[in-house]
Amino acid sequence: MARKRASDFTLLISTILLVFIGIIMVFSSSWPDALHKLKDGYYFLRKQLIASFLGLITLVFFMNFNYKKLNKIALPIFIMSLLSGLLIFTPLGTEFHGAKRWVKVGESFTFMPSDIIKLGAIIYLSSLLAKKKDDIESFWKGIVPSLIIIGLSCGLIFLQRDFSTSFTLALTLLSIMFVAGTKMIYFGGLVPIGVLGVYKAISGEEFRSLRVKAFLDPFEHKLGYGWQAVQSLYALGSGGLFGLGLGKSRQKFFYIPEPYNDFIFSIIGEELGFLGSLTVIMLFLLIIWRGIKIALNIEDLFGCLLASGITALITVQTLIHLAVVTSSVPTTGIPLPLVSYGGTSLILYMGSIGILLNISRHTELDRS
Amino acid sequence: MPAPSNRTKKRLVIIFFVVSFFVFALILRLGYLQIVKGEELKKGALEQWTKGIDIKPKRGVIYDRNGKKMAMSISSYTVWSSPADIKNSKETAKVVAEILDMDEKEIYEKITKQQRVEKIKQWITKEEAVKLRKANLPGIEIIDDNKRHYPYGNFASHIIGFTDIDNNGLYGIEKVYDKYLNGTPGKWIKTTDAKGRQLPYGGEKLYEAEDGLSVVLTLDETIQHFAEKAALESLLKNNAKNVSIIVMEPKSGDVLAMVTKPDYDPNNPREPIDEEIKAQWKDLPHQELEKRWYDMWRNFAINDAYEPGSTFKIITAAAGLEENVTTPKTRFHCGGQIKGIPGANIKCWRWYNPHGSQTFKEGAQNSCNAVFVDVGRKLGSEKMLKYVKAFGFGENTEIDLTGEQAGIVPTNPKNMKEVNLATMSYGHGIAVTPIQLVTAVSAVANGGDLMKPRLVKELIDEDGKVVQSFKSEARRKVISKETSDTLLDILESVVSEGTGKNAYVPGYRIAGKTGTAQKVIDGRYAPGKYIASFVAVAPADDPKVAVLVVVDEPGGASYYGGSTAAPTASEVVEETLKYLDVKPKYTEKEKEELAKTVEVPDVRNKNIVDAGKMLTKLGFKYNTEIPNITEDAIVIDQFPLPGTKVNEGSIVDLYFNEKGKESNEKIMPDLSGKNREEVVKILDGLNVKYNFNGNGIVVDQKPEAGIEIDENITVEVEFSDTKE
After folding, report:
1. Does domain B596-656 fall into CATH 3.30.10.20?
2. Which InterPro entries does the record match to this protein (chain A) (predicted)?
3. Which of A14, B167, B448, B642 could bridge to A286 as Cys pair (CB 3.0-4.6 Å)?
4. How many CB pairs under 8 A join A and B?
5. Which contiguous run of DSSP H or E holds residue A319?
6. Topology adopted by domain B53-217
7. Which has the closest alpha carbon to A322: B141, A166, A175, A314?
8. Over the stretch A345-360, which tens digit does the pLDDT of each residue have?
9. How near does any CA of chain A get to the CA of B33, in Å?
10. Continuous segment of H or E residues that includes residue B505
């Protein structure tokens, strides 16, 4: 199967469209913040443009980089990613808004190790499960090593007090196990553990339990923990069917804090209306559909699991972001893949899409 | 290379359906939020985006009937702070304290309070405002404001009333006409970000404030001035508790003047005018102080009912004449004691020297109780009470002021004993308010129409256009024209020949009646406390004014209405008639007396001491008009001029070379909105220098309107389009 084919065109176009929408929306929503805090309205736009350019290079690189080679270097990648996560606990770790989640290299380059860990863990778990295809149903040989990988990667992120990201990753990695064929009975066993873990995590930190309380009646806690949820609802509501028009959001003017990050979809809803937000969701659904299609069509288990993992990561993160913005779950900070501001995240997601595209080149896919 | 199993593929399909389900659910949720609940959420969002800033309307002016400003609003400034925005509290406090001449500590406390906004000082001057704006302190804001100003001070203060610090009427016309004076506040709605800064989008809306209407009173500033002066004199001379004077135009019911002394200054309504009282009040607890305030603001003329005494005989006479139970010539007998009234021993006031046989007219001149008791008994309770009520006693006159009393009048003639009827005939055993009495006497004077006292003539807008006018209103016809004429003739004789002699003014036919009654306190007659009154109508043949003077608790040598209230009434009547340009008509007898004239000496070029001595020696009175004059002042002119023949005891007005402190005091007029030509005319009229800046209409002036100025100042005027 060494024949090179064209890659999945729909996936590529959807991705580029989303990145493009992201650049515009980051620019629009970051303008007030950038102007008032940094005295430079184009600050975030510039950084996002640079990141998307780097992202495009990464995408093209991975599109042409045989994914099978990843299988061979899966363990080093995983170890490297874990080590990068540990950098946070060295003097290189940088704090921002009270959370230590960034690593600073040199004067102007910072990155988020949690993004790297996500991809590293997906690659390694896919590789591991592909190799242990026959042991997948065995508890000691299949389940335990998988759970160790999940525990290590998610635990490291959780140590950065980033509950939502570690939850996202856990869900993604469990999806890979699910696709790989882990017996349902084990998932049944994992449910109480997961519920207990979530409960512990929420009751262990006061701000988490307050957020849950505010979620139940955001308007009651409008000035406290319900603020973001209420502001997001106001944004969506005032957008209506057609939106206020591109650039015309009012909620981005300090009502929604950092609207270019975890609440970018609120601004999309406000400026572009229900029709605009529906378009964005549809683009994501296209990517998910193509991702699963690629996983179905590849005749290589590693490729299949890797495609599933990448798609799962994008899916889980998108769904949580949408759920938070529509106040369907308690408020938590999850950026929208490919759209939200954030260099590390954008480059890695575009790289992941590149991997997906490369996998698609090894399938008998209908590439319309 | 292991291939994916079928289970894997199956599970991938399951995942796709599960994800699609979630995506679909989220789309539904999004649609519900954006479309179904959109309007509701948008409302909440709009609420937090928009901030309304109130724009205060300018409060209307209160004018007298001739257009003099009795109450007006002048531009002022108020300093606010928003503590959250203040950068350096210490430094800010220091600068503000320096500019406003306030305590630094006090300001520091205010600007560090946990408040969104805190008022630092209301009504600062323009200069202070300019300095503060220049200092450009973050968190300190200067807001345009209006301050109520009463240019005449404690003048008609019971009528005009006053406002609170936010320009809401609290008392008097300011309260009763508050809704007209106030206008409609405007609003400036703008969209702001979460920190209150304006958003770059339009959507700004300005609802202009509608300025208040101005009230034109029936009051005449000049007549009010006569009344104020006379009341104050009477208060001091008689050492009285209160003196009230009401001047009414009988035909229209217009209140031309109404004063109760002592009074207060509406510019500072909570501070007594008298320095001594001010000192006494200093340490009073708030509750006690509040009581004193209300006492000070009490308008005796409408808020208190008193026993009218003999002035009420006018009503008895009117009823008797109208019902034909007596004519002016009907004879009556006074034997001192009044007999035949069960359970009472009533005497004429001159029981020790009875009036004997007299006509009704003579009885009125003598104010003989026996005559009026007889008239009252001939009328009977029912008719008597009918007239008392018809004249408006026992009910509110509905004058446009607050707290009017209805007085005390028997409700049903059946409840009246004979003794009640007898005492009522000469004004005892009932209680009336001064405004009721003067309104009733006006009805006697105008041919029998009981008018509704009118205090407000019309409401006008900014351009002087009449928006609403209030017509004079006759409530009912009480007596016939004939009765009115007959009674005026009798009352005129009371002044010319009877107990009202002290109200006599040569050349004017004055009709009047005295009244003296013991005060009733807590239902008992209070020993040694009297209310002396005099009611006058002039000229008797064509009444122009009805004047009532009520002296409450005169503490001087005399407490009789004839000697305390009548001279005051005569003074007001004379001055008012002269002002109204009613020419005196002298009788033969008066002409004869007037013929006894003397020549006015020449006192010009003498100093005040010598001039005064000379005039006094020759039996003249003199008037200097200027307070605070020094002994060295030289008379530069006099009126009448030397050689003029005048009556003995006439007054000579003297004019001096020195300018007294108040002689050249002027009030800076409001120039805003006027054009250059108008401004030149006004300022030339004031004889002041001026500097102009720009063209168009006036937008700013210095000094501000309402400020006292003299001829030495230069007025700075800024016009709308300033071209440097």
Report:
1. yes
2. FtsW (IPR013437), FtsW/RodA (IPR001182)
3. A14
4. 137
5. helix A301-325
6. Penicillin-binding protein 2a (Domain 2) (3.90.1310)
7. A314
8. 999 999 999 999 999 9
9. 6
10. none
